[in-house]
Specification:
mainly beta, Immunoglobulin-like, eight-stranded mixed beta sheet
C-alpha cells in the first residue's frame, strides 16, 4: 500500500504571496505623469506620371506630413525629377528615373505649394498644394 503525503502551504508562503500581490497593486496605482503624445499622421502615397509634355500628380491636394511619391517615367528619355517649394530655387530632393521606369521619393512636407519638375524645360511641372497637418494616425495596429 502506498503512502500519500499531502503538504499544505505554510503561513510564511501565504504571507509572501499576499505581499507580492499587494506591492503589484500599489505600483499600478501610481499617480505619475504619462506622456501619451499623439502619433504622427499616417504616411500617404501620391502618384506622379511623367510623359513627353507634362507631369501629372494625384492627388494634387493633401495635408502636411510624410508623403511617399511613386513616379512613373513614361517618356522616351531618362528624367531627373525634383520636388521643390514653389518659392524656393533649390530642390528638396531629386531622383533619376530611367525611361519607362519608376522612382520613389519620401519626405515630410510642410504646408505650401510645391512643384514636381524635370531637369528639362520641355516638360511642364506638376503642382501640388499641401494644406494643414493631417490628423494623427489611428491607434490601430497593422496599418498598411
Amino acid at each position: 500500500m502506498e503512502k500519500v503525503v499531502r503538504r499544505t502551504p505554510s503561513h510564511g508562503t501565504s504571507l509572501l504571496a499576499v505581499v507580492c500581490v499587494a506591492s503589484g497593486l500599489v505600483a499600478c496605482g501610481r499617480d505619475e505623469d504619462f506622456a501619451n503624445e499623439p502619433g504622427p499622421p499616417v504616411a500617404i502615397t501620391v502618384t506622379a506620371l511623367v510623359d513627353e509634355n507634362s507631369i501629372s500628380v494625384s492627388p494634387a491636394r493633401f495635408g502636411a506630413g510624410v508623403v511617399r511619391f511613386i513616379i512613373a517615367n513614361q517618356s522616351d528619355e531618362p528624367q531627373e525629377v525634383s520636388l521643390r517649394a514653389e518659392d524656393e530655387q533649390e530642390a528638396l530632393v531629386t531622383q533619376a528615373i530611367p525611361a519607362g521606369g519608376t522612382g520613389e521619393l519620401k519626405l515630410a512636407l510642410e504646408p505650401g505649394v510645391y512643384e514636381l519638375e524635370t531637369d528639362g524645360d520641355d516638360i511642364d511641372p506638376g503642382t501640388l498644394t499641401v494644406g494643414p497637418q493631417r490628423p494623427e494616425g489611428p491607434d490601430q495596429l497593422l496599418l498598411p
